[in-house]
Amino acid sequence: MPHSTGERHKINYIMFLCIGLLVLLPFLFLTLYNHPQADDFGFAVRDMTYGFWETQVNYYMNWTGRYFSTTTAFQINPVIYGNFDRYKVYSLLLILLLVVSTCLFLHKLLQRHFNVLKTLALAALLLCLYLMQLPSVSEGMFWLPGYLTYQLPNIMLLLLLALLISFFRTGSSNYKVLYVAFAALLCVAVVGSNEMSIVMAFTTILFILYHNRNDRQNRLYLLCLFILCVVAILAAVLAPGNYARMEEHPNASKPLWATIYAAFLTVLSFYRWLAPILVASVLYVIYWGLPLADKTKASSFFEVNLRLSLCHYIVTLFLMQFAFTWAVGERPTPRVENVIYFFFVFGWFYNVQVALTKYAHLLQAERRLSPILPLAVMFLFILQVFAIDGNIATAYTDLLSGKATAYNSALNQRYAYLKESDCDTCSLAPLPAIPKTLYFMDVVEGEENSSFWVNIDYADYWSKSAVYLTAPNPEIKDNVTTLREAGKELIGN
């Protein structure tokens, strides 16, 4: 009987891997159709026109304190060299790096308790949850400035945590110095990426430092890491450019308004995102949570004060919302929410495990559960992952309906026209289709709108006086409509 139970669970773990693979596949294939857009062209013109240090000083003094994004990340923009194929490769590498960093973090955390199959299955579960509700897929995985500023720091934070896990487990002082040094570099990079990541890095390192305050062997290392984190935060937050930029937002710098609004948005985030996570939590408890709780009675990673852990989670979510509402006076944009949702998912499951470690003895009924319950929950989870208007179904629809192909072909034709034509004020045909997964922002229609910033950047990049669309781009259609039209076209042919 134990053998059959183990085999049944093994099949379930393999099923999680299969679901994860099905979730990733459309995004990986869509990178073949990805193209630069919006700020990509403006940043390329900037980096081709001004020197490196001139650009960094100007941005730091007049626009933003995101020193890592402006000094390092944006310098790899392949649009500078007219290499649009490399643009596709970068988005592919970003997705793969997200997968690898998640797997590596979980492997470091759980290698003493789970085999590779179970760890990869858990990574698949978390990635499914993250991708299925990612607030902006295009800005989070396909638009280079968006993912370098808001997705890359998520990846770096996972790597930072993996290094700290290795730091705690090694007994060598030399290795401890090495792990903390690399963690410090990643921390500086994360802090210099965006304001949400500043909050996430600061509260997480503070949480780790406080939890290990009585650990004499490691306390000094962690204190040094924390001090460096604070110095990096001061460099990013006190940049004159931040305050110059805030002057453009009339509702910025209103503490009472920002506090109330951030509290409301924190509560709203649970309403928006929690339902699929609760379903996945049932699966997590059955296949990972309770078995892990039984094995980690002496593990300091989960034997933490539950109230402290929940406080860290809620306060961090609130401060991330507050940072944006205070600086801008408005609700965080989707690309900013990509970071908030990342912490929401990973922080939620950490707290679930902390609670299970403390109260697992009250949940021993799992061993008497009918196999029908996990199968029913699994079925419900699959329905949520592949919901018709969800991110995963949209990615498949963009890919299989021909939207991505038409989008790719039209943009290649546009580049050829702008490169070969001697037009000074150039009219461009609208895109034939808009794949929601890939699309963020394009040139707008009408010669009277040539002064729109995307049009200006486009014109400057292609050495034209002005560019505009002859007609508006089509609206993004819902998946049911897209599939119905694609089916009619297929039958008609």
UniProtKB/TrEMBL annotation:
The keyword Transmembrane helix applies. InterPro entries: DUF6056 (IPR045691). The chain crosses the membrane at residues 12-33, 89-107, 119-138, 150-168, 175-191, 197-213, 220-240, 260-287, 308-327, 339-357, 369-388. It holds the Pfam family DUF6056. Keywords: Membrane, Transmembrane, Transmembrane helix. This is Uncharacterized protein. It comes from Pontibacter diazotrophicus.
